[in-house]
């Protein structure tokens, strides 16, 4: 997967590139507007991360030009401090998602993966299998090692989220927002407790342990160090 | 485009208003006075003239009585003595002139064109002009009674040029006097207004001395004229509010600095120590993780402060929709379910409300903060109750939990930013102390209010929301 990052702030640009590369992407970096536009129009990318404020040519203009040329590459817009206008305008111009600056890297990574998945191969819709954990999405049932596991509907939703995004680190705020529709900072203890209870059901009496804690970042569901 | 006529729409200056009004009032008064005085002078002269003419007419009649047949013009000529500028004319019933003056007006034609009246009627005197001179006069018919043998027509007239000239010069003098008096009056009025404004200028100078570093200064409402007292008092009130706001802001900045300093210092120390000697990769990882957690906390705190600043600076920025509060609370109960079970407490919802207009996400955030606090401070085995009630104007939401009493002096400050009861600041698991401040700012942005009560058994937080957002 090849990504283009157009960002003029040196430090941000560097850590975004490094982070994305370590997450397994090929990353090109443009540090100003005209460069960004040139690269976006001459090469093929699977996704573009585009800053709004850029020297030479602003992000909106680049987006407009790309879309006018019929290029439907997914674009993640980086907007300045929660200015609603920027967001609305970005989405109207054809951005696929936006992220308010400053952001934490895990959030960016999560968004990038979501966008790439949206365009790519759809996830199987009726079952997910990870090791000996099986999720029947249609009937909302989980089994581990063939054993039926009783989950509340929210527990199932949580497990489904983790399973659908296997291997991704999901920040607590993202989990709260996806499972409970809590779109604001709230008591994150709740997520820890919910995960602990889920673990008790699907991991405690089984091997290998599937739910991993990534300290300071969140949780992920994956086979341990495969 | 600059508005060139803006000055026309601006209310007229106070000096202009007062001066103009005084000018108009003076003008009216003086004109009235002049009209009255000229009128009475006029009447006075008329009366004088009429009386004199009456006397003359009487003398003529007496003379006519003496000469009997009226043919003795000598007697008629002598009839009037010692009067100047007085003329009379006598004709008999047939219109034959018995006596006519040698000079003066043509009384014969005057007698012919003027209808005669009886002697008693003086008001019928007329004024006319002849050969450039002005006369007052009248025509009388006498006779037919015992004292006179025949009927006669008598015309009397006098030159009133002198009187008219007198009135004219009187008017002229009066006009000049009016002009001068007007000018003086307007000037005095203008000076009076200016002088009256001196206290305002003085107050203004004092106001100018109140810079942002001297907001504690106040103006003395007793040191200005009574008319300004109220304005000065309002000004002082406003100054008080600004001072409070300033102080709050200053305190807030100080609080922020203080609250941020502790974690940043911890991070610095930790990093310095970590770098103090070579360590294994695992140790470095451990330190980075620990730092990351601390950064996460800092980040949340900064986000909360930003949210507070935004709702307080722009309370109108609400995404208004119809919110069913019961549904919102049930959703939150679902969210807290796991935590609640682990803590061994229960959540309960009581009462009902009609839907209100508000920002759903914001209200959920406020309620979530209250519930999360309640869960933290409720002893195991107890129940937290969210209770709705409603009157015709407001919805009242209370979040009640059994727990330790919050002392009254702390209760009053509990909604302040960064305030934590009993300096719980750095106890493990405690938050930044912004939760309740956020509740307050959200509720106030909705036009509502918050309060808290606490006794030995229960701690209650109330949110009061108006049913119709004005
Ligand atoms: N239900 C309650 N019972 C007893 N004390 C309470 C209750 N709710 C709040 N308090 C006290 O009020 C203080 C302020 O609460 P607030 O929610 O503002 O901050 P916090 O919970 O400490 O931090 P934050 O909410 O920002 O994570 C708390 O520290 C606590 O001491
Ligand atoms: Mg709190």
Automatic annotation (TrEMBL), chain A:
InterPro entries: CheY-like_superfamily, CusR-like, OmpR/PhoB-type_DNA-bd, Sig_transdc_resp-reg_C-effctor, Sig_transdc_resp-reg_receiver, WalR-like, WH-like_DNA-bd_sf. Keywords: DNA-binding, Phosphoprotein, Transcription, Transcription regulation, Two-component regulatory system. It comes from the Bacteria. One of its GO terms (biological process) is regulation of DNA-templated transcription. Residues 125-223 form the OmpR/PhoB-type domain. Residues 2-116 form the Response regulatory domain. The modification 4-aspartylphosphate is found at residue 51. Residues 125-223 bind DNA. One of its GO terms (cellular component) is cytosol. One of its GO terms (molecular function) is transcription cis-regulatory region binding. SMART domains: REC (SM00448), Trans_reg_C (SM00862). This is Two-component response regulator transcriptional regulator. The lineage of its organism: Bacteria, Pseudomonadati, Pseudomonadota, Gammaproteobacteria, Lysobacterales.
């Amino acid at each position: 997967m090849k990504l283009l990052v157009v960002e003029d702030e040196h430090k941000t640009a560097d850590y975004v590139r490094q982070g994305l590369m370590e997450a397994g992407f090929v990353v090109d970096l443009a540090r100003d507007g005209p460069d960004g536009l040139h690269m976006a129009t001459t090469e093929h990318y699977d996704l573009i991360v585009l800053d709004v404020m850029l020297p030479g040519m602003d992000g909106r203009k680049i987006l407009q030009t790309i879309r006018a040329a019929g290029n439907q590459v997914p674009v993640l817009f980086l907007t300045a401090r929660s200015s609603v206008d920027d967001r609305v305008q970005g989405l109207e111009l054809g951005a696929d998602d936006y992220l308010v600056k400053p952001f934490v890297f895990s959030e960016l990574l999560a968004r990038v993966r979501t966008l790439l998945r949206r365009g790519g191969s759809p996830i199987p819709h009726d079952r997910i299998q990870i090791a000996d954990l099986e999720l029947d999405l249609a009937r909302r049932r989980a089994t581990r090692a063939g054993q039926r596991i009783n989950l509340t509907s929210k527990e199932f939703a949580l497990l489904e989220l983790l399973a659908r995004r296997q291997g991704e680190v999901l920040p607590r705020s993202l989990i709260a927002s996806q499972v409970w529709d809590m779109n604001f900072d709230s008591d994150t203890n709740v997520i820890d407790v919910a995960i602990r209870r889920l673990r008790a059901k699907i991991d405690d009496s089984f091997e290998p342990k599937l739910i991993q804690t990534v300290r300071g970042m969140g949780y992920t569901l994956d086979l341990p160090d495969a | 485009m600059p508005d060139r006529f803006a000055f026309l729409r601006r209310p007229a200056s106070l000096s202009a208003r007062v001066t103009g009004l005084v000018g108009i009032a003076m003008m009216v008064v003086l004109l009235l006075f002049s009209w009255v005085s000229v009128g009475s002078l006029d009447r006075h002269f008329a009366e004088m003239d009429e009386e004199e003419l009456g006397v003359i007419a009487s003398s003529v009649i007496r003379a006519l009585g003496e000469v009997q047949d009226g043919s003795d013009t000598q007697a008629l000529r002598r009839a009037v003595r010692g009067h100047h500028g007085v003329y009379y004319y006598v004709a008999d019933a047939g219109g034959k002139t018995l006596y006519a003056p040698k000079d003066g007006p043509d009384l014969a034609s005057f007698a012919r064109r003027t209808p005669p009246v009886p002697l008693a009627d003086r008001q019928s005197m007329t004024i006319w002009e002849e050969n450039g001179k002005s006369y007052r006069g009248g025509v009388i018919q006498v006779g037919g009674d015992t004292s006179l043998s025949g009927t006669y027509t008598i015309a009397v007239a006098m030159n009133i040029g002198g009187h008219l000239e007198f009135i004219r010069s009187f008017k002229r003098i009066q006009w000049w006097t009016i002009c001068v008096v007007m000018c003086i009056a307007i000037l005095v009025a203008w000076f009076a207004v200016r002088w009256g404004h001196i206290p305002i200028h003085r107050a203004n100078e004092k106001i100018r001395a109140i810079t942002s570093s001297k907001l504690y200064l106040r103006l003395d409402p007793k040191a200005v004229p009574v008319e300004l007292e109220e304005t000065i008092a309002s000004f002082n009130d406003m100054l008080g509010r600004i001072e409070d706001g300033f102080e709050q802001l200053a305190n807030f900045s100080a609080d922020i600095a203080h609250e941020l300093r502790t974690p940043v210092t911890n991070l610095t120390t930790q990093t310095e120590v970590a770098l103090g000697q070579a360590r294994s990769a695992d140790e470095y990882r451990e330190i980075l993780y620990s730092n990351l957690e601390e950064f996460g906390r800092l980040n949340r705190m900064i986000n909360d402060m930003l949210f507070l600043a935004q709702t307080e600076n722009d309370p109108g920025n609400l995404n208004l929709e119809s919110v069913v509060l019961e549904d919102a609370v049930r959703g939150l109960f679902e969210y807290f379910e796991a935590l609640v079970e682990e803590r061994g407490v229960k959540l309960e919802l009581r009462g009902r409300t009609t839907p209100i207009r508000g920002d759903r996400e914001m209200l959920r955030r406020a309620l979530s903060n209250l519930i999360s606090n309640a869960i933290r401070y409720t002893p195991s085995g107890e129940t937290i109750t969210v209770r709705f009630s409603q009157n015709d104007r407001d919805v009242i939401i209370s979040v009640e939990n059994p727990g330790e009493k919050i002392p009254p002096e702390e209760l009053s400050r509990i909604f302040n930013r960064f305030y934590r009861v009993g300096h719980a600041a750095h106890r493990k698991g405690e938050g930044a102390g912004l939760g309740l401040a956020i509740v307050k700012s959200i509720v106030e942005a909705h036009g509502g209010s918050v309060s808290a009560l606490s006794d030995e058994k229960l701690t209650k937080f109330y949110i009061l929301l108006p049913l119709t957002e004005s």
